User: Fold this.
Amino acid sequence: MKILYSFTLLCLASLTLLSSCKSDNKPNSKKRSTEYLQNDFKPDEFYPAGQVELQMKSDGSTMYGFAYTADGKGPHPTVVLLHGLPGNERSHDLAQNLRRAGYNTIYFNYRGAWGSKGTFGFQNAIDDASAVVDFLTDSLNRETLRVDTSKIAFAGHSMGAGIALLAGLKDPRVKSIVGVSVFNPYTLLQGEGAEGNLIGLKEYLLTLGMLNCEPNKFLDDILAQLDSYDIDTQVSKSNKAILVLDEHQNNTYFSKFNPRKNFDYKIWNTDHAFTNKRIALAKEIVNWFDETMIDKPNAK
Assistant:
């Protein structure tokens, strides 16, 4: 979600951020070699890494995407990437690095976004994330894409990070979640600053021709279900593995969960897209999934 408007609580005004403290017993305290970031590899003779175009259904509408399939017979742990609003940062660099580390990675566009059919909406996007898991766990797709259905994860950016948490926390098939610059409508669209945030978000939505979206309906639908988007409460009721990396201070409530072994919240000094931290971001995410999803990944 590119912050060009007066969406005050998501602005990048906090470049004096300090990283949150991380205890030594966090899951990603054991880090793999970074060879997967540095060296090319010889592809498997029978099961080489590849890319597969996907068409997936969500409530009858076709969503378009593709799979970065990992090298080797598998089955492979699989990460679903969830883009923001509108999805300018697509994190394909992370997809490539995750695949090189032994993970299948799925990228797709929500209904009503970037050519996918249907209507773009916040709740629709949450449902779309679950529909992708339905697709991956279908027996034919599982075999074709070599998916280990016991090791599925979400990784989202901005609005996609909020969706990763809201959809992933409720889906027992999702084992681990990463949220980068988490958008939380429950805190941003009520209380102090809410009116300015709503106005700014509406103004921004009006510029997004790549979305099949009516701004007033988009916002009205969020406000009508706002209580169900209380990420703080939902995290407090779950013991699922969660990594949150922010570049702003809108979500400092996450810090109270840091004593948990399988939860980590950090604030990095960077911009909304983590532009100058892409390699560090890849390492952080791979290490997190290594330790929360699998013991010894089939890494290349």
Residues 8-293 form a domain with the Rossmann fold fold (CATH 3.40.50.1820). The longest strand covers residues 147-157. The radius of gyration is 18 Å.
